[in-house]
């Protein structure tokens, strides 16, 4: 079935998560994404211990979700032969995706200013930590630092006076990776008109800023945004709170429009008395008269009287916007997640079958998203070299010299 990006060739010169997420999105929608990897492999291939899975080249769920549907060539770009092969790859490429730091790219002659002269139609797409300009543009950027830390999550999502929350690996990277994919597709549309490539960038820091737009912009005024981090009792809208059931499950409610929702919510949870007492509505009066803490306590006590399953039935029947806070093991088995195709099964090279996540965009005319196994180091290197004009003899010479590498299982 035809896909939107059929015929688009992408060279992925990157490591870790963010740029790979960009490439995965493009590959899912038809692009031929070619990973250029060093012989020792992307550092992402060696993160098994902290994720609880085997430290094994043959079973790597993180590598799979980011690099499925792609091909891989392993080149030593520090050799003349390896760099020459990379240049040949770029000759007919539509997009280069990279997250190398600016200084490293300049030293290798792979910066935008150099490549746009050689390949004027190339869309040069770059993931950055803090942006392409400014005093901190050359700082190393990871999602724990540029996205979570400087971007406002670590400080503002803890409870006041409490310890910082433990950040989740890859969350910021996935965000910025999809942002860059959006930029690339936009640039491809523009190139149809102009015939000229462009420089496209996004950064972890800018993405975090955009994600925090509502509260960040509200911080220009005196009020809630300037009071963060907050305790449960600083939340001026109890209907946007999270409460704990009798069996210790978190139930998150979401009703930003407090005043029109309050009476119905109280009726649904069996607390008409909270309406009749007149202390908790309207919202502005509740806050001004000092009844906010009491309101939160009353709702907290109410939720503690029933189990999670009982509340699910009550709140669904009452059409209350809510969700149980799921554990990851529950998401893996969630009928809704599986019905929308959030996962697909991969048979790893060692024979184990594991669930892998799909990128979260569907285009009806493309049908179901593909889920081909991610490549081993340099797995398609020989076929890619032949595609760009190398002879069998030259390929053999490069394999012998180490300019080209194909991983082999020694066990």
Sketch the major β-sheet.
7 strands, mixed
Q: Give a count of the beta strands, DSSP E runs of length 2 or more.
A: 12
| Main β-sheet, spatial strand arrangement | 6-5-4-1-2-3-12
Apparent shape? elongated
What's the total helix number?
20
- Computed over alpha carbons, the radius of gyration is 26 Å
How helix-rich are the residues, as a percent range? 40-55%
Estimated structural class: alpha/beta
Assembly type:
single chain
Distance between the termini: 39 Å
Describe the 3D structure.
41% of the residues lie in helices and 13% in strands. With 411 residues, the protein is an alpha/beta fold. A 7-stranded mixed beta sheet has the order 6-5-4-1-2-3-12, with helices on both faces. Strand 10 and strand 11 form a beta hairpin. Helix 1 packs across helix 9 and helix 7 runs parallel beside helix 10. It is elongated and about 85 Å long. It starts with 8 loop residues before the first strand and ends in a 6-residue tail after the last strand.
Quick synopsis:
With 411 residues, this protein is α/β, with parallel strands linked by helices.
Write the layout of secondary structure elements.
Layout: E1 9-13, H1 18-28, E2 32-37, H2 48-51, H3 61-67, E3 71-75, H4 80-91, E4 95-98, H5 102-107, H6 112-118, E5 123-128, H7 143-149, H8 153-156, H9 171-194, E6 198-203, H10 204-211, H11 213-218, E7 242-244, E8 250-253, H12 258-268, H13 272-276, H14 283-288, H15 292-303, H16 308-317, E9 322-324, H17 328-333, H18 335-339, E10 343-347, E11 353-357, H19 381-387, H20 392-401, E12 404-405
Parallel strand pairs: 1-2, 1-4, 2-3, 4-5, 5-6
Antiparallel strand pairs: 3-12, 7-8, 8-9, 10-11
Helix pairs in contact: 1-9, 7-10
């Amino acid at each position: 079935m035809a896909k939107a990006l059929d015929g688009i060739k992408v060279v992925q010169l990157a490591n870790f998560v963010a740029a790979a997420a960009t490439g995965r999105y493009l590959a899912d929608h038809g692009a031929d994404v070619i990973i250029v990897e060093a012989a020792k492999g992307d550092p992402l291939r060696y993160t098994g211990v902290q994720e609880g899975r085997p430290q094994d080249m043959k079973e790597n769920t993180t590598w799979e979700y980011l690099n499925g549907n792609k091909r891989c060539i392993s080149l030593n770009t520090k050799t003349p032969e390896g760099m020459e092969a990379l240049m040949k790859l770029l000759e007919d490429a539509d997009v280069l995706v990279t997250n190398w730091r600016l200084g490293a790219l300049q030293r290798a002659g792979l910066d935008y200013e150099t490549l746009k002269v050689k390949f004027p139609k190339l869309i040069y797409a770059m993931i950055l930590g803090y942006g392409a300009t400014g005093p901190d543009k050359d700082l190393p950027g990871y999602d724990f630092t540029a996205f979570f830390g400087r971007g406002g999550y670590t400080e503002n999502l803890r409870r006041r006076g409490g310890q910082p929350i433990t950040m989740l690996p890859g969350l910021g990277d996935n965000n910025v990776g999809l942002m860059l994919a959006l930029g690339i597709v936009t640039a491809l549309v523009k190139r149809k008109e102009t015939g000229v490539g462009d420089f496209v960038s996004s950064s972890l820091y800018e993405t975090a800023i955009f994600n925090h737009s509502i509260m960040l912009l509200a911080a220009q005024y005196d009020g809630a945004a300037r009071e963060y981090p907050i305790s449960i009792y600083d939340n001026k809208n109890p209907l946007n709170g999270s409460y704990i059931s009798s069996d210790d499950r978190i139930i998150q409610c979401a009703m930003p429009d407090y005043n029109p929702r309050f009476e119905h919510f109280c009726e649904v949870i069996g607390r008409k008395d909270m309406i009749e007492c007149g202390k908790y509505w309207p919202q502005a009066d509740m806050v001004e008269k000092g009844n906010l803490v009491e309101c939160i306590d009353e709702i907290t006590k109410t939720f503690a009287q029933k189990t999670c399953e009982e509340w699910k039935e009550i709140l669904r029947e009452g059409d209350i916007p809510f969700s149980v806070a799921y554990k990851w093991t529950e998401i893996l088995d969630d009928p809704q997640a599986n019905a929308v195709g959030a996962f697909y099964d991969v048979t790893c090279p060692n024979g184990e079958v594991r669930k892998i996540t799909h990128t979260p965009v569907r285009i009806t005319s493309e049908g179901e998203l593909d889920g081909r196994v991610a490549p081993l180091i340099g797995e398609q290197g020989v076929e890619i070299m032949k595609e760009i004009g190398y002879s069998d003899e030259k390929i053999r010479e490069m394999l012998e010299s180490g300019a080209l590498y194909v991983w082999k299982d020694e066990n």
